[in-house]
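Our collaborator T.R. sent over the components below with a one-line note: 'Predict the complex.' Nothing else. No constraints on interfaces, no templates requested, no preferences about which chain binds where. So this is a plain run: every listed entity goes in together, and whatever single assembly comes back becomes the starting point for the next discussion.
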Amino acid sequence: MSKGRNSTKASRRNFLKGAGLVGAAAATAVTPPVAANAFPVAPQEKLKAALPGPRQIAAETMAPENDPVNQTTSGGDYMVDVLNSLGIEYLAINCASSYRGLHEAVINHGGNKPEIITCVHEDIAAHIGQGYAKMEGKPMAMACHGVVGLQHATMGIYNTWCDRVPLLVMGGNIMEADKRAPGAEWVHSGVDIGALVREFTKWDDQPASLPHFGESAVRAYKIATTPPMGPVFLALDQELQENPIRDAESLHVPKFQPVVPPQGDAAALAEAAKMLVEAKNPLIICDRVARTPAGMTNLVALAETLQCGVVDNLGRMNFPSRHPLNQSFRRALIGQADVILAIEMNDLWGTLTHFRDRIVRTSHPATKPGTKVITLGVRDLFLKSNYQDFGRWQDVDLDIAGDGEISLPVLTEAIRRLMNDGNKAAFAERGEKLAKAHLAMVEQSKIDATIAWDASPITTARMCAEVYNQIKDEDWSVVGTSIRLSWMHRLWDFKKPHQWNGVSGGAGVGYNLPASIGAALANKKHGRFTVAFGGDGDFMFSPGAVWTAAHHQIPILYIIQNNRAYHQEYMYLVAMAARHGRNVEKMDIGTTIKDPNINYAEVSRGLGAHGEGPVTDPKDLAPALKRAIAAVKAGGPAVVDVVTDPR
Amino acid sequence: MKVLKKIAVTILAVAAIGAVAFAAARAQDAPRGDAAAGKRLYLADGCFTCHGRSGQGGAYNTPAPILAHTAMPFDGFKGQIRNPINDMPAFPTAILSDKDIADIYAFVETLPGPRSPKDFPILNN
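Returned assembly:
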């Protein structure tokens, strides 16, 4: 028998791990030396007794191998200890053999802590992590096959990256070629599996030992949670997870100490304060300011001190919707401002520019000549090259690197020091004008919402008004919206930090359903009532997420804005046909989801959720919502299919 | 910009003289259109995709204005269709004739406009 590279004899690595092995193979336990056909026997006729087979030959001629079958420790146990030391509450997974060692250790060593969230697709797991982190303020983990599972997860990870949200992604791998079984383990292994997501993660590593894992896991968590936040990736060697711990005595869990986010330079903030105080029409624009509940408080304090308008791009719950200084639906103010303070902006150029999507694409500033722009944020402190999520270059006058949320109190205090009776009066007068304009805007929204109130398909305004009427007295939290659905922010009273958590980040369809369930998972222990809107197209990317919500009893009221189309694309095709002077009447081909219409309520019921709809008559909406809300309060998910007008 | 200015001036003027007088002016301004034909065109040619089936407004790359019971004069309406001021697609005569536009205009004029929010208690939460 060959003792070469295909031998089943314990490798040097396993040999060195012998301390944790129990009961080396008993003398009578014999392992076949090689595959059953290693000793081919020529067919012979008229035999009175069968010739001995390879197993019998081996048993009779070879010494028993050192082939341990049990162990008392496992690398996966240590990995679980590290994850738990970081306070990671949940591990979203689609089970896979390449991390079976970790999976088993979570259940038996960790007592299902972090709690496993079973997902039917890796993209769901990643998006659940994205939604959870934005609501809970800390990351959870996900695990998948490092090759095939990670490829499924990439869209979720990309959205998480673009949204600047922390997530610990782990992918199983078998680093050493001689450890891989024939077949699937080869196509499931890679030399550098982190390469797949390296362009949209902050950091990645492939630990080669348990101490290496411990340090890299803590480092990864620290990097993920340091603003600007983002997903990180660890490749988990299967052998490392499964085999006994070597040198257990020297193994320890590294200490995690969170980074205090960088505050903007005090002198620069003082300069910003001077510019803002001296401005006649200062304006704050923001996107992802609020990392914690303090973010909204700090921004309100700044705006009220200056009595200036706030235009919120709604990347987080930054500013109360009914605050008199909220001017988010009065974008014309950008053109009137003489000083603009842009805080934690995602697309500053896009916000300050009028862009025309025409044959010749043109743009011109939305600002008036001479407007000074101050930026405050950390987004540009960590960028990568390939994916262009950094947006177009914007000229600015004062660029302050610093975490927005933590820098705002310093800026506000600097402004207060510059205030006197004269500018206080001017500020107050400015604030009164803005408050009146805000009230007028709210009233106009109500007026606009009345149009086609009784129409079928149901208007999106009516849909949002009906939902709010049912949940307004709950401790509600809206964690999802469909594309360009703004009626909630025009009509509802958003005032608590957990009442909104932003959008997808990468505009990758398929975010909304699983990320909303992730946010609902976070809300569950706080007793909040989670509601989300989402498009029908988005829903069908990963409807299996509903099963996860049902399985784990995650309460969520999920409203499908069912316009039976990938509607943004429908409009684009109409525009293309019009540009070309051709038939615009067939642009539903390839852009609509009809013939047959999907019965989302039935789909949802099949996945274990409460399902309502399709609701086509607006008068049926309130009763359907009441039934769905009762199901949510009973502890599970409910899906309401509302057939709506396009937008 | 000329179109924009014309629209703005017209709207301001109309607001000053009152809704009844405006309705008369609008009727004089617009060629006679076939609202039923206009409805078919509005739904078939994609107007509804951005402005809503009931002309309640919506969004394309930017907000798409309300068309129900439009206050826009016909010339401005037609100008916006032929040579829009924003990302709205331009519809040439090969797609919409002048008569088609008149029909669509007649249709959106028939669409009920807004009502008082006071009549809708749930809008006043």
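Summary for T.R.: Residues 1-25 of chain B have pLDDT under 50 and may be disordered.
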